[in-house]
Amino acid sequence: MTTIAEIKQTLQHKMDQTIANFKNTLTHIRTGRANPGLLDVVHVDYYGSSVPINQVANVSLLDARTISVQPWEKGMGAKIEKAIRDSDLGLNPASMGDLIRVPMPPMSEERRKEMTKLVRHEGENAKVAVRNLRRDANEHVKKLVKDKVATEDDLKRAEADVQKVTDKHISEIDQMVAGKEKEIMEV
């Protein structure tokens, strides 16, 4: 039989995971600034299997608007360049010997607005996930009361605690959305 403390602990852990997933999602949304995490979604053909770029090359920042990709093997440069060009990121890599430079083109005002909409949408999805976790936790506590393991007072206290945790995570998501929107709208 689970206890209210275990339910709260599980809730906290799952909500923290939701925040971490949302953070990860935000790193893949393009801003005007270069970010090596942007290329994590690009896969390269490596001896017949599709692998992420960061498993065949060193991906880092040259400056605020340029990502550098340094392949670990001589023959991989052209394949990596083609994979970046074929991805739906709209990037145009340029080879400089062994090094591949990926300049970040400036985003149009329209594109920035699209990106902020995407950020808000992802933020809303994260909030929905947090609220679903709140609902599940409350249902678990109610079941304990129904099974006479916990009292009505325990239920009220637990629901208040669950709501506090939920509010904290939702405000964290709102802050992350606001920060990302500010980053996108910077010219």
How would you briefly describe this protein structure?
This protein is of the alpha+beta class and 187 residues long. The protein contains four helices and six strands.
How are the SSEs ordered, and which strands pair?
Layout: H1 4-27, E1 43-46, E2 49-52, E3 57-63, E4 66-71, H2 76-86, E5 94-96, E6 99-103, H3 109-146, H4 152-185
Antiparallel strand pairs: 1-2, 3-4, 4-6, 5-6
GO molecular function, one term: ribosomal large subunit binding
Subcellular location: Cytoplasm
GO biological process, one term: cytoplasmic translational termination
Please give a structural write-up.
It is a single chain. The protein is of the alpha+beta class. The protein has 2 domains: 4-28 and 108-185, Topoisomerase I, Chain A, domain 4 (Orthogonal Bundle); 36-103, Gyrase A, domain 2, CATH 3.30.1360.40. The protein has helices at 4-27, 76-86, 109-146, 152-185, and strands at residues 43-46, 49-52, 57-63, 66-71, 94-96, 99-103. A 4-stranded antiparallel beta sheet has the order 3-4-6-5. Strand 5 and strand 6 (99-103) form a beta hairpin. The model has no long low-confidence stretch (mean pLDDT 86).
- In total, the number of strands is 6
Task: Characterize the quaternary organization of these chains.
Answer: single chain
Report the C-alpha radius of gyration, rounded: 22 Å
Let me know the CATH homologous superfamily of the largest domain. Answer: Ribosome-recycling factor
Which fold name fills CATH's third level, the topology of the largest domain?
Topoisomerase I, Chain A, domain 4
Pfam families: RRF
InterPro entries: Ribosome_recyc_fac, Ribosome_recyc_fac_dom, RRF_sf
Function: Responsible for the release of ribosomes from messenger RNA at the termination of protein biosynthesis. May increase the efficiency of translation by recycling ribosomes from one round of translation to another.
Coiled coil: 141-168
